[in-house]
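Design review, sub-item: ligand-bound model
Attendees: FS, YL, KQ
YL presented the inputs for the nicotinamide-adenine-dinucleotide complex:
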Amino acid sequence: VVTGAGGGIGAVIAAQLARLGSHVYLLDLEGAPAVAAEIEPAQGGSTVGIDCDVTDPEAVEKVADRLAEDGRPCDILVNNAALVRLAALEEIALEDWRAVMAVNIDGCFICTQTFGRTMLEREGGSIVNIASVAALNPSPGRAAYPPSKAAMVAFTRQAAVEWGPKRVRVNAICPGLVDSSMKRPGSIDARRRKRTFVPLGRLADPQDIANAVAFLAGDGAAYVSGAVLAVDGAISQIAFRDLNAAPE
Ligand SMILES: NC(=O)c1ccc[n+]([C@@H]2O[C@H](COP(=O)([O-])OP(=O)(O)OC[C@H]3O[C@@H](n4cnc5c(N)ncnc54)[C@H](O)[C@@H]3O)[C@@H](O)[C@H]2O)c1
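KQ shared the predicted structure:
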């Protein structure tokens, strides 16, 4: 199950897992069925797109029922759905704060608890939470987003400890600047400028994130749980870059 897979990074993650032979359920508010239909699975994989709001426990439960009917208990969950609201701390409305938290951390919790049930029963599974470098590197003007992603990272560690004895692995990926469709006004130009700050010299391609998901979801990461993997071209390491360039 990949949430927020109706576009952007989530769609690329879903396609990658389907190419590796998974039966992938793509969830999004809208558009997931069309995206699922465009993916070309391989190695016996398949795709199904379902409109589902991850903040609605009943809607998520219905998807779990569907998986049960299909005889495909969830063994990989990618919590990728997210919301960004651009607003400074002194200005952000409580409803916007709550909207961000509702998707980014409540939705992650709801999906983990719901789809994790069959993982616990079957004693195995892999959950990958798509957090952000923002979890540890806040920036002005997005008051709720970095705290929501920090909560996701803490939740990842908590779940890894709680569910480790049942052999359910839980890890987080912290993407840096990704060349995707995340709707931020003026973001494309800003990103072109920002890539000069990335030590690897380019923005991430969504496929870079999908490759990391495939690793964490697969048997190659059998002993990896509670990890927080930066997939960011080292941008999270450059806090002092400007200091070094400062005039004497
Ligand atoms: N793009 C970046 O530069 C970047 C950087 C760091 C982290 N990330 C993270 O990567 C993930 C994907 O980002 P993206 O750039 O593809 O963003 P995006 O906005 O294109 O995709 C997010 C998806 O989540 C869906 N979504 C929102 N609310 C939902 C809900 N209630 N229920 C179901 N789906 C819902 C949206 O419809 C959208 O399709 C997010 O978790 C984001 O925080 C992105």
